[in-house]
Write a structure and sequence with these properties.
heterodimer, A: about 300 residues, alpha/beta, 8 helices, 16 strands, about 30% strand, B: about 325 residues, 8-stranded parallel beta sheet, 4-stranded antiparallel beta sheet, about 30% helix, globular
């Protein structure tokens, strides 16, 4: 693959492969943001999509799935896609050292993005750790469409809080939480949610972060009567729909559990349909005061992202 | 090496139409080219239509199908290991009836050379699935996934035992109306004996090898990395084992067609398998990293053969030189 190459079925919608130049590299605490120049990928991307990036760390084989943290097909005349690299693992360590001017082999966009509200809505975006990255992108898309955006970003401490000046500028309100109280409100994102929902009357919650956080937010959303869309994290070998490693237990409309691939059917799913107990997160559901069947599926008509309701 | 050289590190190969004959035969089954997909690594085929033309692949071996739908195992189902990965999926599949209705018509419509991988808990399970495939157009061959625990024999995996393998292959071959490939495991203490037993029982060809059973532990938490504790190791880590098995079996059974499989990433890997004695080569885990692999390996193989003075891929099958026969 030559630099700048675009391959795949470029004549249709869907994922392509690009070898794109890294034009900017930024360090934010333990996180590294890489900005790659690719008009083709940017034009196809929406918030919630992810990409699979090839890494060359010794002994590694698989690509790394990364959420698209921002895409702008018009930026600088070339189009850019931003990726945020976390601090864990040899693949991430390799990616974090990729220098400006070098190239990345990227396949995307992959997965189903966040479903956008079909009517004017008050949206609460909740992010934990570096999982907050794609929510800034989501806020940038929601606000110009006339939706209200309230943002809650949490982390264990200030050093791992994903700051974003852009997000602060675009969102109508921003609340930060840290478990050790080193920045913002002491506690977890779930401690901040009820107050924001009460004050702003949130119609839908979009959540992104560790699965335990997503489970807690989903149970809380059920208790508050607010639908929750979660972007799940599960180990993924391919990200393309063929390996079946990233399966998530999801209850279908009959209540039966189906193993759905988070790369093709997700990564964004209805938090009320995910069976968190089967994912080994029963302790989180219990701690949130959830019942055996919690979270309860959202009532018909309550979810502003539900196309069927509008139609 | 810089990121710019990613997957571009190998010699640049001129595109297609080198005039090289890539056609191979697996017994009665003719393939336009020797590059196949490995079972379980290409799902139903439809997912990969976003990247490649499934009709241009030598053979599409679909994810193993069972008598009834299977939901598979809990997660984590995967962990990356040095130059490879462990997986324990648990044969998640829609079941043979749903596959025949939903997936096969799509493969036929897109011109795929379809090989159906069959799995089960008992010999009767396998036979049930194979019976459902009888007389159905668009199925090129059946691959028997012998790496299944036989619940009638204390869960002993068929492929570990020559007699159990022979019994299963015999039962399948009796009802199949297309060529039957037996997919064997290098976990067997004597894989050549299992191969000979499978061929004697009616296998028309062999797929070598399935994943190798392995385990990984998170040293800090002390937990097994996979929910299933054990899983199948795949990727370049197992390639030398796979090449060795292909060579051993080809030496013992030179007339039996072999599909080589295990850690194929590059054209050079494909050539190794062919020289060891494989007539076709399946890409598995490599396709996770490079969804275009079937096309790039096919074109790259033609270019490689041309550059090295061969006019047909068949010229190098089994031509490895060993020891002093230089």
């Amino acid at each position: 693959m030559k630099r700048g190459t675009v391959s795949g079925r470029t004549d249709r919608d869907g994922p392509i492969r690009v070898v794109a130049e890294v034009v900017t590299r930024r360090r934010t605490g333990p996180y590294t943001t890489l900005v790659i120049a690719t008009q083709e990928l940017a034009a196809r991307s929406s918030p919630g999509h992810f990409v699979e990036v090839a890494v060359e760390a010794p002994g590694t084989l698989l690509r790394r799935p990364l959420s698209i943290a921002r895409a702008d097909a018009a930026a600088s005349g070339v189009g850019i896609v931003e990726l945020v690299i976390g601090p864990d693992g040899p693949g991430s360590a390799w990616l974090a050292e990729v220098q400006t001017g070098s190239h990345l082999d990227v396949i995307g966009p992959l997965g189903k993005p966040f479903p956008l509200p079909q009517r004017p809505a008050r949206c609460l975006l909740v992010g934990g750790g570096y999982g907050a990255a794609p929510l800034h992108y989501l806020a940038e898309v929601l606000v110009p469409l006339g939706h209200r955006v309230d943002l809650i970003v949490g982390a264990s401490s200030e050093s791992t809080l994903l700051h974003s000046i852009e997000a602060k500028r675009v969102a109508h309100s921003l609340q930060t939480t840290t478990e050790d109280g080193s920045a913002g409100m002491r506690g977890r994102v779930t401690d901040a949610i009820p107050d924001v929902v009460a004050r702003h009357g949130s119609d839908v919650i979009y959540a992104c972060g560790p699965n335990a956080m997503l489970a807690a937010v989903s149970v809380l959303g059920g208790q508050l009567g607010v639908p929750v869309r979660v972007s799940l994290e599960e180990r993924m070998a391919c990200g393309l729909g063929v390996c079946f490693t990233c399966a998530i237990p999801v209850r279908d409309r009959d209540g039966e559990v189906q193993m759905r691939r988070s790369c093709i059917d997700g990564p964004v799913m209805d938090g009320s349909r995910v069976d968190w107990r089967l994912m080994g997160l029963g302790h989180v559901v219990d701690a949130m005061g959830g019942g055996a069947d919690d979270p309860d599926p959202t009532e018909a008509g309550a979810d502003p992202t539900d196309r069927a309701v509008v139609a | 090496m810089s990121a710019a050289d990613l997957q571009g590190a190998r010699e640049e190969v001129p595109a297609v139409d080198s005039g090289v004959d890539l056609g191979v035969a697996l017994g009665a089954l003719r393939l336009e080219n020797p590059i196949a997909t490995a079972s379980g690594c290409f799902a139903s085929g439809r997912e990969m239509d976003r990247f490649v033309d499934v009709g241009s692949i030598g053979a599409v071996v679909v994810k193993s199908l069972t008598r009834l739908p299977r939901k598979g195992l809990p997660t984590p189902r995967m962990v990356e290991t040095p130059s490879g990965m462990l997986n324990a999926i648990g044969l998640q599949n829609p079941g043979i009836d749903a596959w025949l209705e939903d997936d096969l018509p799509w493969l036929v419509e897109h011109g795929a050379t379809t090989v159906v991988s069959v799995a089960g808990d008992t010999v009767e399970d396998f036979v049930h699935v194979v019976r459902r495939l009888r007389g159905i157009a668009g199925i090129a061959a059946i691959e028997v996934n012998l790496s299944c625990p036989n619940v009638e024999h204390r869960g002993l995996v068929f492929a570990l035992d020559p007699e159990a393998s022979a019994e299963l292959v015999r039962a399948v071959a009796r009802v199949a109306d297309v060529p039957v490939l037996a997919k064997l495991s290098a976990d067997a203490s004597d894989v050549v004996a299992v191969a000979a037993a499978a061929v004697k029982a009616g296998a028309d060809g062999l797929t070598l090898i399935n994943t190798i059973l392995g385990m990984a532990i998170d040293p800090v938490s002390g937990r097994a990395e996979l929910a299933n504790t054990y899983g199948g190791l795949s990727g370049p880590a197992i390639r030398p084992v796979a090449v060795r098995v292909v060579h051993q079996v080809h030496a013992a059974l030179p007339d039996v067609p072999i599909v080589g499989c295990g850690g194929v990433r590059s054209v050079e890997d494909v050539v190794q398998f062919l020289r060891a004695g494989a007539s076709a080569v399946a890409v598995g885990t490599g396709g996770f990293v490079d969804p275009f692999a079937t096309e790039t390996l096919r074109d790259g193989l033609a270019a490689w053969l041309s550059a090295h003075g061969f006019s047909s891929v068949r010229d190098i099958i089994g031509d490895v030189r060993t020891g002093h026969d230089a």
